[in-house]
Amino acid sequence: MMIDIRHPANPEDAKHYTTERLRKDFLIQDLFVPGKVKLVYSHVDRVVTGGVHPVQPVALEASKEFGVDYFLERREMGVINVGPKGKVVVDGSEYELAKSDGLYIGMGARNVSFQSAEPGKPAKFYFVSSPAHKTYPTTKILQKDITPVNLGSIDQSNERSIYKYIVPGGVPSCQLVMGMTMLKPGNMWNSMPCHTHARRMEVYFYFDLPEDGVVFHLMGEPDETRHIVMRNDEAVISPSWSIHSGVGTKSYTFIWGMAGENQNFDDMDHVAMRQIK
After folding, report:
1. Contact at 8 Å (CB) between 206 and 254?
2. Is the pLDDT of residue 225 over 90?
3. For residue 64, what is the enclosing H or E element?
4. Quick one: which of 276, 219, 277 has its CA closest to 247?
5. Max CA distance (Å), the chain
6. pLDDT at residue 205 greater than cutoff 90
7. CA dihedral 174, 86, 183, 194 (to 10 degrees)
8. What is the pTM assigned to this prediction?
């Protein structure tokens, strides 16, 4: 297992960060290492972002940084497969996941492992984990069973479909909220007009980009914006004080994972376009 620790940033300090410092503190790269579990532990709401690329079965374990006997002793997690077919095994129960299918795993699950259906075509399991204080049932989530929310318009280049995987009223969790947004062909903008939400942080994971494609991810306070250039299969940490928006060189898909004190999806502080600097 590989683990990277990230510490919180004060917005007053982040105003003075160089490109290198912004990328070091907020950008998550190389999530899919063959045969390994890659973890990024953020002290922002203690959210863990992870990736597994199992060429052979790989177990999820807890390192000393977590201070527990097993990873989900005091945590919950959401998993979405962004690659070929694979399988997640939770305490002996097997859950087969095709691309874009998800799995919620509740607090207390002791043994979690990841497998690919075909070793020559390894799956890519992306996951987000947050602290929990109550156990909810482990639940498989098929993307085809989710009714998407369609937003945006082609004239604003932000026509998109939002699939809510782990939300109140759907698959329940303690504090984790997770889903996927797919941009329609010919659309490049996400979450613009932008917003912040002071009561929870967020992680964005961008995928389905071509090798030469990029997303200019916008972050920072609304009147002190910065950008991070991101490529396929990369994630970015968004503190509660930061906007999280972006534009790509072509359409793409991204997974959003949130954790904090409020699970209400619509609890956002919207930012008028005239306020952005």
Report:
1. yes
2. yes
3. none
4. 219
5. 54
6. yes
7. 30
8. 0.95
Under the banding of pLDDT at 50, 70 and 90, the label for residue 1 is confident
Helix, coil or strand: residue 81 = strand
What is the extent of the structural domain holding 180?
Answer: 2-275
Domain count, the chain: 1
> 186 by DSSP, 3-state: which?
coil
Q: What is the DSSP string of 192-232?
A: -S-EE-TTEEEEEEEES--TT--EEEEEEETTEEEEEEE-T
Q: Can you tell me which residue has the tokens 């990230």?
A: 6
Helices (H), 18-64: 19-26
DSSP type of residue 244: -
d(CA 84, CA 238) in angstroms, rounded, equals 28
Q: Which residue has the tokens 């937003």?
A: 151
End-to-end CA distance of the chain: 41
Look-up: residue for tokens 């007053």? 12
DSSP for 95-127, written as a single string:
EEE-TT-EEEE-TT---EEEEESBTTB---EEE
Q: Which two tokens stand for residue 182?
A: 């797919």
Q: Which two tokens stand for residue 113?
A: 């492992």
Cα–Cα dist 104/141, whole Å? 8
208: domain CATH number is 2.60.120.10
Tokens of 17: 């960060």
